[in-house]
Every structure is written in C-alpha cells, then in structure tokens.
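Researcher: Sequence of Prophage pi2 protein 38 follows. Predict its structure.
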Amino acid sequence: MTLIDLANLLSRLGYPLAYSHFKSEQKPPFIVYLVTSGDSFSADNTALHESADVDIELYVDTKNLTLENQIKTLLKQNELPFSYAETYIKEEGVFKCTFSIQLI
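Model: Prediction complete. Tokens:
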C-alpha cells in the first residue's frame, strides 16, 4: 500500500484530513498522517524493498470510541497492523490518538 492509498482510505471516514498539518486551524475531530521514518533493503546497489513508518493522528475534543473503532476497523480490513497510543494535550484541550503503522 502506498501513502496515496492510505490517504484515500482515511478520506473515506469523512473527517478533515491532511498530511503533517493543516494550513488553518481545524475544529476537532480531524485526522493528520505523516511519515515518521523510512527504510529500504538493498542488495547489489539496488533498493529491493522499501517501507515507511506512518503515524495516523486523530484529534478529538472528547473521547470518541466510535471514531477510534472506525479507524481500527479500516486498518484491520486493509491488513495494516497497528500500535496505538493516546495522550491529552492540555494546552489545546484535545486528545491525540496515534495509530502507528508500516507501509510496505
């Protein structure tokens, strides 16, 4: 799956979506995704296999299990294993729910 494929999947949820950040302030809920690192397997001076670690960040003003489960279901249906972390950003008054995946 490519980053473009991932963006198309996430856009199906119907919430504002951006790579890395929005250019203007957004009202939660919204989703941001970004590549946090990448790697390649090389042999004979050729990159044979590339991967990208991607964080999908859901921002909500109140805990939203329904939306979190929609993202989890979307990832599972597309065979994208994920790890999950959550934090509260006091200064912004929002929860940030991060789904970390690897695109191959």
